[in-house]
Design brief:
49% of the residues are buried. Helix 6 links the parallel strand 9 (175-180) and strand 10. Helix content is 28%, strand content 19%. The mean pLDDT is 97. By secondary structure, it is α/β, with parallel strands linked by helices. The N and C termini lie close together (7 Å). The chain has 7 helices and 10 strands. It has an 8-stranded parallel beta sheet with strand order 4-1-5-10-9-6-7-8, sandwiched between helices. It has a two-stranded antiparallel sheet with strand order 2-3.
């Protein structure tokens, strides 16, 4: 596998972001003025090209970033390399907000909805991202949902499963495996920026990730390091990233 670091939270460069894996390549361009989504579209265009190049070379890219929106670039890159990936998405939150439903305005709550063809289309359209069918997306945990998200998911084809049942819900290959580390109980990772109370232990998340990897077919991985800089949380993730060692 090849580790690609994207040390940003949304469009904010975080040069001191502590990552749980040493990077083989870092993507950190100077972004021009513009709206956050316009700036992220330029950033994720570089991510998409890097991911596509790794996949074409027969390697599995692991993209490590400061939030979940980098997934747009990863999936676009897989598509550019000729794949139509399914998505297995570990997260304490559902990430299916739109500009109309969000109460906080936090753009990091949009990407799953963007991947399936909804929400703000600025970055997806500029990346040439083709919508992923809802039925090809598995949300793992996603326990913290706002009422509009609950309503949307009640009628969507997106599947929702607890961490311990992910092995029974795995879609066919190729798979984009996304892990927002805040899927973990914040008692195990106290440095999380947006903790979701309760949830699975870090050991349970690690075991589930290992199950996905062992099943084969993972074409790319995204790790969202949604913790506060300087918290030391990256050191707690050693077991989780070790679970990726079975990637081929």
């Amino acid at each position: 596998m090849t580790v690609i670091a994207v040390p940003f939270h949304l469009d904010e460069h975080l040069p001191t972001l502590e990552l749980p894996l040493p990077a083989d390549r870092t993507i950190a361009p100077d972004l021009p003025a513009g709206s956050p989504w316009e700036r992220m579209a330029l950033l994720y265009a570089e991510v998409a090209e890097a991911v596509a190049a790794e996949v074409r070379a027969g390697r599995v890219p692991v993209v490590v970033s400061g939030d979940c929106t980098a997934s747009l670039g990863v999936v676009a890159g897989l598509q550019r390399a000729g794949h139509d990936p399914r998505v297995v998405w570990f997260d304490g939150h559902a990430d299916v907000q739109t500009p109309e439903t969000t109460s906080s305005g936090y753009l990091g709550g949009f990407p799953v909805r963007q991947l399936v063809g909804g929400s703000d289309r600025t970055a997806p359209d500029r990346l040439g991202l083709r919508p992923v069918p809802e039925g090809d997306v598995v949300l793992v945990d996603a326990r913290d949902q706002d009422p509009p998200e609950v309503e949307y998911l009640a009628h969507a084809a997106i599947r929702q499963v607890p961490v311990e049942e992910v092995g029974d819900a795995l879609p066919p290959a190729p798979v984009y495996l996304h892990v927002d580390v805040d899927v973990t109980d914040p008692d195990d990772l106290p440095g999380l920026m947006i903790p979701a109370p309760g949830g699975p232990s870090l050991a349970a998340v690690t075991a589930a990730v290992r199950t996905v990897v062992a099943a084969g077919g993972v074409a790319a991985v995204g790790i969202a390091c949604t913790y506060r800089p300087g918290s030391g949380t990256h050191r707690e993730l050693a077991g989780l990233v070790a679970a990726l060692s079975g990637l081929e």
